[in-house]
Predict the structure.
Amino acid sequence: MSDSDYQIKQLRSTLSKMEIALSTVEECIVWTDRQGRIKWCNAALERFFDKTRLLLLGNSLVDKLPLLIDGKLLSANLHPVTIALETRKSGKECYEFEKSKQFIILEIAWSFVEITSDLTETDDSASSVLVLRDVTQQREAKRRLEEVNKGLEQQVAKRTQELSEANTKLQMEAEQLQKLLTELQQTQAQLIHTEKMSSLGQLVAGIAHEINNPVNFISGNLAYLQEYICDLLNFVKLYQKYYPNPVLEIEKVANKIDIEFLQTDFPKILRSMEMGTERITQIVLSLRNFSRMDEAEIKAVDIHEGIDSTLLILQHRLKLTAESSEIKVIRDYNQLPLVECYTGQLNQVFMNILANAIDAIEELNAKWTYQEIKNHSSQITIRTSVVDSQWVEVVIADNGTGIPEAIQQHIFNPFFTTKPVGKGTGMGMAISYKIITKNHGGKLTCFSVPGKGTQFTIQIPTKIIREDDNP
């Protein structure tokens, strides 16, 4: 046997083995000549067309396998076999095909093949190889998965809407309580003005008791609301874990609502509402501060935390509105030791001073044009420092309207206010002065330049001197 005959024998043996192997493949494999006629196919293609290989060989694959895209018949020049032979490139695409009066989805991969062997029987060296796979079931499974995802999305949207409505209801109740609190402050000022201090103490105590009931109701509901939101956020995280690549529609909605921001901001909102209910209680108690400061527990605290919590409650007033520019808060904090103080009372001082600073800036903006507001950077600066080993200092400065020199000496007097009737009772700074000077043994001073701004300086000792500390 010559070497050539031996090589041919080996080649035929190899081809026979390949034939057996390819006959077990589920995908349809077809080999065409340069004219797109079927030269060879595996058993899967025979089963697909329900015809023997002898009946398939020599047929044009374009004619034998008419393909559609979106229900429209594909032209011959766009058929995968034509693309493979003309472009001499590989590719893969999904097409529709009508089989047994039903449309199926075929995933077709094609490649250009060029054979330059002396063992070939013809000189037809250019050919194409196509692999056909029925992906109808996979597409159907994907469609059902999309329906499930859509259903889950709707459930999440519904639950989010319910939580939003519950949150709105709580906010409305909080606003009603705030309105009631304002009315109580006005009543307090009138009673003090008519020298009914003793009656005022009893009145405030009774009303504070009545306000505590709805405040407790809100606090209790906030706990459930927090639980519901945590469950919902955990559900969303679980969904993202098992479906990290959602369908396009879900991804668009997630980007639109900024789902990552919601996941981080929801807990902050709940915390601010919790702080708000706590502050309502503190504000009710502070109504009696000017006439009789209740004894409270003295604690060593970080003053910065009190300032930051107050700024958080006032955050809505710092944002840009139609009437006022955004107010920038500059925190120039230095390291401070823990300070012994009446925490609630000191926070009330921060609230009064910061609220007045915001009012002064808004009043100045009301006098300016839009361009002047745009050119003017509204800001509040808060500086903290250590005076010495026994004292700390907090400076709160704004660039608002400022206080005329003629009335600066009256700002700490009870009932003195420059605000319209119904907006201020004239008790805020008087109570603040008493909290700092009498309750904490500190100093509260004011320096202001009309048209430039106002600066309040608070100095308090790091330790309150108690009566039992005296020798």
